[in-house]
Design a protein that fits this description.
Blueprint: H1 15-20, H2 29-36, H3 40-48, E1 55-60, H4 66-74, E2 78-84, H5 87-96, E3 102-104, H6 111-115, E4 126-130, H7 139-148, E5 153-161, E6 174-177, E7 180-183, E8 187-188, H8 189-199, E9 204-211, E10 220-221, E11 234-241, E12 250-254, H9 264-279
Helix pairs in contact: 2-4, 7-8
Length: 280
Amino acid sequence: MGPVPRKWYVDWQSEDHGRVFDGRRALSDKNLVRNYESFNDVQLLNERLDRARKVSLLEVGCATGEFYRYLRTKYPLVNYRGIDISRSAIARARQKYPQERFFVSDAGAKVADTVKLLGMPENPAIVYSKDVAHHQTNPREFVTQLVEVTSEALIIRVRTRDVGQTVADPELSCQYHYQGWMPYIVLNLEELIAHITSLLPGCELVAYRNHVVLGGRENRFLPKECYLPETGTAETAVGVFLKTDHPGRVRVEDRKDRAIRYSLDRRLKNYAGRILRNLV
């Protein structure tokens, strides 16, 4: 991907980053499954992944490793590897799951170069990357790299817009976290689809689009139009399938993420936590 300005990712090394992204650690296996399966990207994966088949899966942006626990629970035959640029997050993942499945990747390193170091097939069958592309300084190039290392399926979750071109300047579209800035690039969905299908003209592409106004939430400082509902911003799951009965088909579907239905004991813990926070 080329040199990446240090300012964009230095704060991802903070202990706060690892701690915040380890929130699912407190969930039981049952509630963890319910959490992940509320999201469209995991629904896309489940529609195509055969539980009885051995398959290699690379997670790009694995954070503290809780998606590995989900896969271990649901798909025990998956040969998993995870990479992330956050050393604090990878340290937590290795502490919890010490099977040498988690690796640090340098910001700006090519995904293909990192894959060669992982002890798995050069082109894993499935590449999964949740909420990572829109935090890249060049998300289009990042998606290209994911496509290049995928042999069967790519599943990503990105931020998209229906109206207006992608604003690819992280100085104009960014997010403030951990006392630092990170890119937050909202991709025009048609542009993204055209880019992927130009790289893989025979693929099947499915997009589940969960419309939500992105501007003004969680310290996001985005182009002004992203604060308006008519821009059609969304949290979008995209599945790119190379082995398919429908080559060349593109399907875009509006589909809300599901409400998470935690067990009663988890709901009581969450309720008690909210009460305590309000009392402080």
